[in-house]
Design a protein that fits this description.
single chain, 302 residues, mainly beta, Cyclophilin, 2 domains, 7-stranded mixed barrel, 6-stranded antiparallel beta sheet
Length: 302
Amino acid sequence: MSGDRPTRAGHAAYARLEVLETGPLALLQDRGRPGLSDLGVCTSGAADRAAHALGARLLGQDTDLAAIEVHHGGLALRADRAVLVVLTGAPTTATADGIPVGHAAPFVLGDGAVLDLGRPTSGLRTYVSVRGGIDVDPVLGSRSHDTLSAIGPPPLRRGDLLPVGAPVGHPTVDVAPVPTPSAGTVTLEVLPGPRDDWLRDVAELTSSAWTIDPASDRVGVRLAGPALTWSARFAGRELPSEGVVRGAVQVPADGRPVVFLADHPVTGGYPVVAVLTERSADLAAQLVPGQGVRLRLVSSRP
């Protein structure tokens, strides 16, 4: 049931944002819940960590406050009090009461004003950060929704009233001249994985042209392209479950790589042949179905 989402115990809401439309998917996300893998809980958190952190910095507040991660645009919010807002990540045709607002540039959403987000012009995930953060109760230390385990605040629904915390910090920047996600072929940098010797030729991973499969989500991005072949010495063998991390490139039995994102499982039973750099993991979170991808090895073992 939609309605008033409770603030943290003992905290009165500074303002509230009414959810008028959610688009395909809108989630609350912060930095996640690291350090719980031994309990079977992954970090989760914002899929594009850099975009989430940029929003917090532009508002002069801590990066651990929760923002709204909007997938494919379509979100509409009404404020019941003037709040300072900034959009980062995938740029959209956004308006406040019909007036266009900028990207990576804080603006005031007035009392009763409506923020509307169109579809992204490039990229996939837009972050709506509000000064004071979305102040709901944390679950296991985080306000992030994990789509794999369903831990954390549920996805936003029409009619939700989101509490905004009291303003903290002092914004000092009017706009951040940062690059927006590319709509063309993106090169992701990878490091050698712990099981790269399971591939017949690891060069197949970096020499092949890949596209983003539609069956991709916050758990992982599936790469469509030529099937990779396991080394003959590992044919028919099974790999015991091992821990996996964000950015891990796993090759299942069908030979099509999967790049794990924020809501990845904590263990996997297929070889991890490469691991994306932190920056490239953020880039991967903004890839859309059908977009071209190349993998580039940036380090090798001596």
